Amino acid sequence: MSKQWIEVGSIEDIPALGARVIKTGQGQIAVFKALDGSIFALHNRCPHRQGPLSDGIVHGHKVTCPLHNWVIDLENGKADAPDNGCAPTVPLKVEEGVIFLKM
Fold first, then answer.
1. SS3 annotation, the chain
2. How many other CB atoms are found less than 10 A from the CB of residue 22?
3. Which of 20, 72, 77, 97 is the most exposed, having the fewest neighbouring CB atoms within 10 Å of its CB?
4. Does some domain include residue 2?
5. pLDDT of amino acid 77
């Protein structure tokens, strides 16, 4: 099955340093906005204990999981050392203020 670009909302719907959750057939996807306006999408599960990353604290291009303070890089989904694991990223694009995920 080939992946398609799916419209998920406006960039204005996500506050700076915040996230919104998109429910998909592949599970929940968290779409984050950094303070500099960068947008990222990850599966909404910390690789440690499956905590909801969308409830975490966004700082720079990272999010800290609310359960056990693992720090996840929003660009590649990898946990910062000494922790080890990865939250899968989801390709996205923004066109005229509208966010699309490749699902």
1. CCCCEEEEEEHHHCCCCEEEEEEECCEEEEEEECCCCCEEEEECCCCCCCCCHHHCEEECCEEECCCCCCEEECCCCEECCCCCCECCECCEEEECCEEEEEC
2. 19
3. 97
4. no
5. 98
> What's the CA gap between 80 and 82, in Å, rounded?
6
- Asked whether residue 6 is domain-assigned, the answer is no
Q: What is the CATH number of the domain that holds 19?
A: 2.102.10.10
pTM: 0.94
Over range 52-67, report the average pLDDT: 97
Give the pLDDT score at 2: 78
